[in-house]
Amino acid sequence: MNIAVLGTGSVGQTLAVKLHSLDHSVFMGTRNVEKSLAKTGKDSWGNEEVGTWIKSHPEISLVTFKKAVQSGNDLIVFAMNGGAAMDCLGSVGEDLLGGKVMIDITNPLDFSNGFPPSLTVCNTDSLAEQIQRKYPSLRVVKSLNTMSHLVMVDPGKISGDHSVFMSGNDHTAKSLVASVLASFGWKEHCIIDLGDISTARGTEMVLPLWLRLYGKINDPYFNFHINSAQAK
Amino acid sequence: MNIAVLGTGSVGQTLAVKLHSLDHSVFMGTRNVEKSLAKTGKDSWGNEEVGTWIKSHPEISLVTFKKAVQSGNDLIVFAMNGGAAMDCLGSVGEDLLGGKVMIDITNPLDFSNGFPPSLTVCNTDSLAEQIQRKYPSLRVVKSLNTMSHLVMVDPGKISGDHSVFMSGNDHTAKSLVASVLASFGWKEHCIIDLGDISTARGTEMVLPLWLRLYGKINDPYFNFHINSAQAK
What we know:
Two copies of one chain form a homodimer.
Chain A: E1 2-6, H1 10-21, E2 25-30, H2 33-37, H3 50-55, E3 61-64, H4 65-71, E4 75-78, H5 85-92, H6 94-97, E5 101-104, E6 109-110, E7 118-119, H7 127-134, E8 139-143, H8 149-152, E9 164-168, H9 171-184, E10 191-195, H10 200-204, H11 207-217, E11 223-227
Helix pairs in contact in A: 4-5
């Protein structure tokens, strides 16, 4: 497929590399290509800035958000910073987004008051719903947002079963997303379709617990597993 | 121990029976004993109303909130409806609550707009923190609030590992709660101490996901497991 990855942070980088390794053509979108190329060294999390990273990944095209969606027209992987999410989509525009399938990984985290971050939207709404309302013909599937990016693309690094959720209104879009998840190594019975896009409230609201667990476990290789195996 | 169970719904009933079976003396607290005794039949969830239930459980004393804490002075199990939580504690009073250990199972669910409920507090605060702030010398440990009451007291009904969380500021109180959890059958490595009481935001905010999963699985015997087992 031709895939747009919107977002140049560690989540976008990891997804882009994985998708390319699976023979997809990947177009990474950023607000300003020149400014992104000028970002070198490491960010505050110790991850490579995109300007440094892209030099060792010539197989990935770094282009504007709009060009990424124009070229990566089979699937949008939305891996933005929560605060920049709506601006990014605004720069792509409704016409181009219409009918596209989007895996929305973005969490509405607000780090402005330090750690732990709060959510900019939750409880009676979610970022996924905001996106879906603003772009009704975009087929949003919230998924992969409840784990480290390292687990997203390599679930086999954790032994035993663990879960990935999907929320979305469009069944065909969820089938496509499930096939992408399966190509990453997710077992079919570990992919949980929660229902419509409003169920994304639940997975976005898991982030505060995930962040506390990350602080405690101090290793990104953990995940939620929904254990419903009844004892004999 | 002498244990106060505050709340007469299915969570309180299930905990009371389990604690009595473990040779504790259980004092179930309610706002108005006469009114509770007059509640018969089944509630809207299909659970026995307390007036019916108590007749087949003469081993449990049904008393006022205040008398329950006076008699059940070793541990308070807080299993109230979220909306009635602060009124309940107000009727017990600060003097009596001071120094006590409380397992806070109550979730701040608001069903006033139907299903799914929203939370009355979340994101930058939690019900557990509200209780702890209002009663600084009460030793609040948020726990057991992320699963069905049937799983709380019988974790062995789900095969394999699954997790129970604890949040609280007082280490001695958390040790006591952990020992109670162990007596219910919780394995030591499945009891996760998340940290101080502010980490209860994370577990209370899991409820929206839990409720959607319950709607999907349609069976109370499931639970979150934090899988951090790295593949060899």
